[in-house]
Design goal:
This protein is of the alpha/beta class. Among the domains are: 6-155, Alpha-D-Glucose-1,6-Bisphosphate, subunit A, domain 3 (Alpha-D-Glucose-1,6-Bisphosphate, Chain A, domain 3); 458-540, TATA-Binding Protein. The protein has 18 helices and 18 strands. A hairpin with an 8-residue loop joins β2 (56-60) and β3.
Amino acid sequence: MPLLSLEAAKKYPKPAVKLAYGTAGFRTKADILDSTFYRMGMLAVLRSRAKGGLAVGLMVTASHNPEPDNGIKMVDADGGMLHQSWEAYATAVANAPEEALESELAKVATAENIGESAQGTVLLGQDTRPHSARLSAIALEGATLVGGVADDCGVLTTPQLHHLVRLRNGAGQPLIGPAEWSSEAGYYTMLWEAFAMLTSDAPAAARGPLWVDCAYGVGAPKIEAMAAKMAGALELRIANRPGEGELNAGSGAEHVQKGRLPPAGYEAPLPDCKRACSVDGDADRIVFHFYNAQKEWRLLDGDKIAALCASFVQEQFEVLQLSTPLSLAVVQTAYANGASSNYLRSLGLQLPMAKTGVKFLHHEALHYDVAVYFEANGHGTLLFSDKATKALLDAKQQAEASKQAAKARAAAKLLAARQLINQAVGDAISDMLFVEAVLALRGWQLEDWDALYTDLPSRQTKLPVMDRSVIITTPDETKCTAPPALQPALDELMARFPQGRCFVRPSGTEDVVRVYAEAETQAQADELAMLTAQAAHKLAGGKGDPPTAAVA
């Protein structure tokens, strides 16, 4: 790579704080991120060169964080999240002293055997935060400084940037689609065509509009663009646009799912909108909600979305009756509500467990032919392997040749779902359209979907501890392996409550223990959470007095 002068390295001084690259990249107060963006522009060029010149992406967003925050995360060449092996490089480069920056980048080049022959290409996207354009320009400056070619794609949702990278590189063969899909306009075309195919035989019924809470973020203009492409095929009421309020304040998927509260503008039933959803600030999460006949507000979170997705796929599999069955799994974390797990088991589905975090869910999902994963916060997707895609294409062709209309239609629906649902990352827009398509096919409103199962009451809380590292769990975080007396104590507590389940896990960011409990009633879930926290306090060195109540 070109030599990096000390003067250039010092242009954007490193902040005093230590930064770590997590699932969502770097994320903190926007006013201390200049050097991080500068350096990630440089590192992105190296990652592109390491992938033989394939494009990588840099997304400028802090997602569901408050408006004063910002962040940057890298999109890998396959359109997915940055490979975990490069997270350590990102952390080292972000925190290197200015005089050591060139040598730190050289270490990466040496470790990855990166030569000078491949050109580094970086696509940049940004959300609507007031500081995103400036920070994006700094990342572009860093990329070009080390010889990269940077393409500023402007304002996008995070999943749209993932889409552009994936399509630019032709990832996900076969059936990647026509070249014109590899643009923002092509994104809308691809989704609209898939939605139209999927709903072509849906019952004609007046379902009314879907009210869409956009958290005052980038989702609003992009969903409006999607709606324009669909020309009334799905009526959308866009609410909480940029400029109408502070980003993510009292609105958005995070507020709705974590707080169990309706968003601004939907505090009471709207006579003309029986269905509502909320996306987060960068539109990669979505949850649904509504008011029932008793005017009680009801939330349908990521667990409910996963159940709808999986039941739809299984229905089509039952029609297809493939000679060589494809594996179908729903990947869950320890936080998945027990009622959702029971429902999915009743369908005969595999339920592998993964560590908390979407990157761990995605990695586990890749082990199956078709896999669904959604965190409760609404971040997730439905993945089809290349093997599954080929099998469905073959099944459709064979069914058409033998005039088996039902089988041909089932295969076509699954292929349309594959086109509609983002195959690289959770995408609120594509997930919204898929949910609406399945509901339309079934003639359902949200109360019909909600009736699939009833969530068990649950409680999440946290416990300050002296040293969170004393708690060690199994890889899926469902059991404690240390301290040795803790898991037996938790097992005893769970046995005391009908449908009782609890676990503790160390936080990845602060010296606290995360506590989760569920049971047959809310009072029992609250009590079990308190007793679980007390057991962890006693056996893992909690700070202060033992808790006397479970607080969110």
